[in-house]
User: Fold this.
Amino acid sequence: MASPPTLLKLDATTSDMRAGTSALTPAGAAPGGSANGSGIPFTPPPPLADLVDENALRVPPGAATFLPRRHSDRTGLADREHDPVTPLAMADLDTALSTFRELLLADVSRVIAASPAGSAQDSPRRESHVATRKSRSKEKTRRHRSLSPSSSSTSSSSSPTTTDDEDDRVHTKAGSCKLGFLQCPDDRFAGVLDYRSYRLRNRHSTYGASQAR
Amino acid sequence: MGRTAKNMKFSFGGTPLFNGKEPLKVFSWLRKFVKACDDNDVSEGMGLYLFPNFLVGDAEARFTRNLPGSDIGDEQRARGSFPEAVNWLLSTYAEPHALGLAQDRFSRATLVYNDGVDAFATRLRSLAELCGNIHFEGTMKQQLIQGLPEYLRTDAFV
Assistant:
C-alpha cells in the first residue's frame, strides 16, 4: 500500500533537515508562503540567534546597570567582550545602587517628616536630654536662691508621687538603671502597679542592715 | 528582731504576713507595710531590710536571697534599694492576667442564695482588695446592688 503524498514529502524534508530543527518549520519555506502547499499562509519564526540579538536590543541601555549579574560578570570582562564601546564595571553598579538607596531614603524621610506622629514625637526626643538638663539646672538654681517658706513646705511634702530629682537621687545611690513600669492592659491598674505609689515618707537610703536588725 | 521591727509588727496589727501563695494580696500587704514604716518613721534604707520580717515562706526566701550583702544570689540583684524591692514584689506577684481575672470576678459577683448581704459585702471588699483597691466607694455600692437578687434590688433602690 502506498503512503499518502504528504507523508512522503515530510519524510523527504526530515531527511534533508539539520539536527535540532523542527519538522514543522521547514527551513526552506519562504516568508508568506503556504505550508507544504496546503494554502495556509505560513510565516517562519526568526532564527534563535536573531531572537537573542533582539532581546539585547530591547533592554534600554541604562537599565543594564540595575540588572543582577553573575559572579563571573563582575569584573566586566564579559561586557567588554560583548560591547567594547560601553564597558560596565563594579563602580557602575555601586553608583546605581547608591543612587537608588539615596532616593529611597529621601522618600522615607519625607514621609516621616510629613506625618504628624513623626514630627511631634521624634524631634522633641532628640532635644529632650538637653532640655531636661537645662530645666533641672534652672530648678536647682531657683531652689538654692529662693528661701521662701512656700518652697520649703513643697520640698518637705509627703505625697506618694515623687519628683524626677528625687528619683534620680535614689537611682544614683542604688547604682542601678531606671526602673521600668509594669505594663498591664487595663489602665485602671496603672496606679497600683507603679512602685512610686509605695514610697516611704522618709526617703533616706543611708541606713543599713545593722540599724534594721 | 529589733525594736523597730517589733513596733512595726504592732502597727501591722492582725494583717497576715505575705507568703506569695495569694499573689494579689501583695497590694494590701504593701500598703500596710508602707503605713507601718511611716508610722514608725522608718527610712527607705532601713525599710529595705525590714521587708523579710513581714514575709514568710517562699516569698521570704526569694526576697532574702538577693538582698544586698547576701552571699547567694541567682537572680539579678533587683533589690538594691527600697523602690527596687517594691518594684520586684509587684512584678513578681501582681501578674496582669491574675489582675484581669480578679477584676472579672469582682464585676460578676452576685449574692448567693444562702449568703447574707453583709457577707456579700465582705466578699466584695476582699475581691476589690485583690484588684489593688482601685474601685471607688460608689463603684463598690453599685456592684453590691447589681449583685443582689431582683426583689432585694428593688428595695435597695427605694
Observations:
- Chain A has a mean pLDDT of 57.
- Residues 116-145 of chain A form the longest helix (30 residues).
- Residues 160-198 of chain A form one domain.
